[in-house]
Each structure stands twice: as C-alpha cells, then as structure tokens.
Amino acid sequence: MSNKQLLIKTILISAIFFISNIFAVEMEEGVHYDIVSARKSDSKVVKEYFNYGCPGCYKSEPLVKMIENSLPEDASLQSVPFENHAGWRIYVEAFYIAEMLGILDKAHEALFHQVHVEKKAIANKDQLKTLFVKLGADEKRFDQAANSFQLNSKLRLARKEAMSHKILSTPSFVVNDYYRINAQAFKSNKDLVDGINELLQR
C-alpha cells in the first residue's frame, strides 16, 4: 500500500470515528438514567417492566424488538409483568400462567391483540382461560397453574423486584439490575437503544 493510499485510509477511518461520536448519546445520570440498586447483576440483562393492559406497552412492542435485536450475544432481554393499576393483576397472572403452560410466545401477542386491537379487556381467570384454551392450552393444566403456589410465588417475586428497581410506571427498562432508563430523555428510539447498549458495557 502506497503512502497516499495509507493516508486516504487513515482519513476515512478518522472520519467514520468522528461521525459515530457525533451521533453517540452522552449518557448522564439523573437525565438518561437513574441508579436504582447497590450492585450490578452478574450477567448482562435488560429488563422490560410492562403490563398487557398498558397502551404504552402495546405501542412500545416495536421498540422492545429493536432492543432485543440489538443486544450482544452475551446479553439477554427479560420481560417482567408489573401490576401498576388496580385492575391489571390479571395480566400479571396471565404472563406467568402462559409461561407455566409453555404458550407464552403465542399468548403474549394474543393478549396484546385482544386488549388493544379488539378492545376486549380480560377481567378474570375464566375469561383468561377461554383465551388460553383457544391457544391450545389444556383446561385441567390451566386450572392447576392458575391456582398453584408456584404462581403466587412468581407474583411475589415480580412485585419485590419491581419495588427494588423503583418501578412506578410501564413500560420501564432496567439495565443490569442497576440502571433504570428515563426513556423520555432520548430523542429517538435509536438513541434509546444505543444508550441501553452503552450501559450494558459499563
């Protein structure tokens, strides 16, 4: 490679580095995120606190996919249902019952669709059972899961975790069990995703 070619290559690399830094989000504590625990998790994880009854959570589904698709191989996305409304406990139960029945992927989409597209709220376990049976769940297994100690334990743990991360509303994102994202501080979804990935590496 000639000196001229080497110079051009160096200039191009420097330009790319400069441009990438122009668009990088300068993360500031108290603005873009708050620290909500004493220590970080041992593994890299982004937790999404949500509820099927939450209109903002339904609208944020494309953003959640963006975050999931952007994560490095050594990081994961976890959904945590949060009961931030008196009538939304059933949706927290729905998440964990679907998980226990092995139909969470199908149920996740179906619940959002019924509540926000069909405008049919779910008020109790009987209505939830009707939906899950349509999705292929066994009625007996549903009854067992819906009335199990395991379900109550999952509900308690989810509530305890949300309290420890100072979750007040949905959707909310927490990185490495340490940084709670202030989504409104970002100008775009891309900036928010970039910010989350930056915090994952800290």
From TrEMBL:
Key words of the record: Disulfide bond, Periplasm, Redox-active center, Signal
List GO molecular-function terms, semicolon-separated.
Answer: oxidoreductase activity
Family annotation (Pfam families): DSBA
Against InterPro entries, the record matches this protein to: DSBA-like_thioredoxin_dom, DsbA/DsbL, Thiol_disulfide_DsbA, Thioredoxin-like_sf
Residues in coiled coil: none
Which Gene3D superfamilies does the entry link to? Glutaredoxin
Q: Where in the cell is it found?
A: Periplasm
Q: Give the top-rank taxon of the lineage listed in the UniProt record for this protein.
A: Bacteria
Keyword Disulfide bond attributed:
yes
GO cellular component terms, alphabetically, are:
periplasmic space
- Chain segments annotated as transmembrane: none
Q: What are the annotated disulfide bridges?
A: C54-C57
The DSBA-like thioredoxin domain covers 95-178
UniProt family annotation: Belongs to the thioredoxin family. DsbA subfamily.
- Output this protein's name: Thiol:disulfide interchange protein
